[in-house]
Amino acid sequence: MAKEERNARIVEEVIRRYGSVLDLEASPEVLIDIIREFGSEVDVTVLIPPNPTVGDPTVREVMQALLRLSREVEAIKTHLGA
After folding, report:
1. Which of 40, 44, 50, 75 could pair covalently with 57 via S-S, beta carbons 3.0-4.6 A apart?
2. 16 by DSSP, 3-state: which?
């Protein structure tokens, strides 16, 4: 499946489940649900998963990842005018 077709399928599925307008201020968990559901199908080269040969991530690494995610959510909210 071509990248454009895959992206179109993802968008159609998100619209089917959550509607054509997402109110992240009222329901911020929707964004997390979408990322969980479709994150493996989207190129997320910025996010680097922990190396399984090194061991479990540390609390510091988890907190840093959460902070990055929080900043990204805020940037999305700002971009959407929320």
Report:
1. 50
2. helix
